[in-house]
Amino acid sequence: MPELRGRNGPLYRAIADALSEDIDAGRLSPGTRLPTHRELAERVGVTVGTVTRAYAEAEKRGLVSGEVGRGTYVRDREVPVHMPSPVDLAHDDSPVELGINAPATPEGDPASQALRRSLEELGRTQRLTELLAYQPAAGTTAHRVAGAAWASRFGLQAKPEQVVVCAGGHHAMEVALAALTKPGDTLATEALTYPGVKVLARRFQLRLQSVAMDAQGLVPEAFEAACRVGVKLLYTQPTCHNPTGVVQPEARRRRIAEVARKYGVLVLEDDAYGLLPESRPPPLASFLPEASYFIAGVSKLLTPGLRMGYLVAPARARGERLAEEVGLASLMTTPLMAEVLARWVEDGTADELVVRQRQEVGERLALVRGLLGRELPRAALAPLYHLWLGLPEGRRSEEFVAQARRNGVSVSSAELFTAGPGPVPAAVRVCIGAPRTRAQLERGLKRLREVLDAGPEPLAAIV
């Protein structure tokens, strides 16, 4: 029972202050299970939301830790939050996942804290009833306004009527391909590309045309050669390409736009990671505004569970055909999550979360430089959660992936990203955001280092 008499300021902060004093005085020892949110709210005479915010504040200060289904406990401040002890680390032989391309969870889990605040605020308004009703397939006006504002963060100016609210970037791709192509059309993409587009191409019965890349991304001459034969749509990732991390320079983007305009090719530009670098060239879409569709990503920049994204149509298209595809598939994108994201865009929370992700990327890349630096050209260490690791001469991608897995670390084979029938590069994608802690990441990178140093395993004898 926290003592709140004589305390000033918001009630949630007063409860967190009382917790801190009781812990410092020894009245609450490490491991003590605190009352549930509802129990404490009834004791103190406040709302459940106030207690939720108080516990979040206490967790932010490192006083307590909570787990859904188990409760909230006083933590030992000698042991870092979410960090295993040195003894645990020394004996931890569990696999380390470096194959899933997910953003990290920075210390304090700021996205979860922001979500708690937003839901608490929404609970005090009359908006909830409206958000539980059917909405326009493209999203409400307010949510599309937020989408236009978010697109401007990437350097793309758009009006709200051009924006369609989608359930993540992959959904936006699916909507665009359904609306813009028909079976038998040719879909061009970089020779290495996001695997999801290969799946969607098969689903929509599209011919997938692989286009050569170099150190600056898609090669304009190779793209033009493909266009001469016939291309309906180009799917491209000019900023922070997945898997290579390449950022296409502005001059190259202008040239790609010129080729697309010359041959009447539509462009679907996917920008899932583009805000992680503090500066970037203008979107390719800004050089081809009449024929470009732009995916302004969210999940890879804020938190993966927020399955939201914005699909921006050319000004003349206005998004009606895209909205029709959303309606056919799911009637609408969940309005509650769209409202949360719109609030984050409007009040600056989204920008703050991006900054936290940039900081976390920097910390994790420092580990990469120390353990894998000699295998990576300097340009490969872009501020991203994925990197393209070229393998030593004589190593094959699939063989290396299998050997790494046997050594307790998962990475992704180049074959997964290869769009055409050509040779598979001797490289793997390494993702540094999936491990929950930096200690886990360091363990995975050390195992990867061991696999690189060991060389290929000898072939088993055939009996």
UniProtKB/TrEMBL annotation:
PROSITE patterns: HTH_GNTR
Gene3D superfamilies: Aspartate Aminotransferase, domain 1, Type I PLP-dependent aspartate aminotransferase-like (Major domain), Winged helix-like DNA-binding domain superfamily/Winged helix DNA-binding domain
SMART domains assigned: HTH_GNTR
Keywords: Aminotransferase, DNA-binding, Pyridoxal phosphate, Transcription, Transcription regulation, Transferase
Top-rank taxon: Bacteria
GO molecular function (one): DNA-binding transcription factor activity
Keyword Transcription regulation: yes
Residue span, HTH gntR-type domain: 9-77
Keyword Transcription regulation: yes
Pfam families registered for this protein in UniProt: Aminotran_1_2 (PF00155), GntR (PF00392)
PANTHER family: HTH-TYPE TRANSCRIPTIONAL REGULATORY PROTEIN GABR
Family: In the C-terminal section; belongs to the class-I pyridoxal-phosphate-dependent aminotransferase family.
Protein name: DNA-binding transcriptional MocR family regulator
Lineage: Bacteria, Pseudomonadati, Myxococcota, Myxococcia, Myxococcales
